[in-house]
Amino acid sequence: MLKMPHVIPSYSRFPVSFVRGEGTTLWDDDGKSYLDFLSGIGVNNLGHAHPKVVAAIREQAGRLMHTCNLYRIPLQEALAEALTASCFAEQVFFCNSGAEANEAAIKLARKTMFDRKQSHRYEIITANNGFHGRTLATLTATAQDKVQKGFAPLPTGFKYVPYNNLPAMEQAIGEHTAAILVEPIQGESGIVIPDPGYLPALRDMADRHDLLLIYDEVQTGMGRSGRFWCHQHHVGAVPDIMTSAKALASGIPMGACLTTAKIATAFSAGAHGSTFGGNPLASAAALATIAVINGDGFLQSVVEKGDYLLAGLKKIAANHKMVTDVRGCGLLAGVQLNSPAEEAVSICLSRGLLVSCQMGTVIRMLPPLIVDQEEIDRALAILSSVLNDLF
Prior knowledge:
2 domains; alpha/beta; four-stranded mixed beta sheet; Aspartate Aminotransferase, domain 1; globular; about 35% helix; seven-stranded mixed beta sheet; single chain; Aspartate Aminotransferase, domain 2
């Protein structure tokens, strides 16, 4: 582990420092360039230094960066309108991160049941190997021992079931259940994609049991899957509450909890809050980001480039026995190995390609949505060469 005497060592960091970025490329302090197929873990969906986002941030920074939520923030109101126009939601609560957005969703579900005079319904059912954040509530919602270890006693009120297992979900629902919380695609666990009927069946299940259905779209939203929101690939799978963050403001910290007007009434004045949430600077960045994603042909290009990337990865898999599976949707892809992936990720870095290792044996790729075919070919060539040399 690198020694940084004044930084808490909560991350295992690679020995590289980036000083500049443009498009899909990063440069380190030695001037070496890297093809970024990680996008800051799904944050830089529009790549680095996108001119429209940069212009919006510069203009707003020179005018007004922050006012608190005791006053109206017109840019926040415009952003809420843009987000609700993209999906089922009618109102938005703004915060600073995915963990905070999921925390808000959990609180909103419980408060909704309280307001319905059903305070005995407080449990949230989540899926094994999901990931929802690092606060005490969201790490408890995250059904992974490695995330929860050392933080006991954990908050009560959470149940876990296998992902993509409808009978297990049905069986877990009881008198105390308030909501189901899942990712439309599990990202941190290695790009796990459910069966086509999974999300619609969860919607039906929630309706039959009078529960709330919550989607964590922190990683899968903002165009990453080829639709603005990943759940929009599925007919009849609309949630009651949805969370967003990561790519929402292209690197300016921002999270959002989206819901219907009826459910939003549970967050009356004073019920929840955020000092920085939806401030002018973050809102300006998010509005510029959404404008690009909503541009003519942008999302269709994500679908086409995602198909191209997935086809290339499958060709690699056909020629490398250590690759046991390739999974993807849009520009979200995972390469499953039958051995540890950390060394492959490290060698990719040394050869100028940024990817990540998930669950020990999965190479995850999250290229910027502006990536082109030539850059995809370069990434595929580097990955193939690394696998050739390792195995």
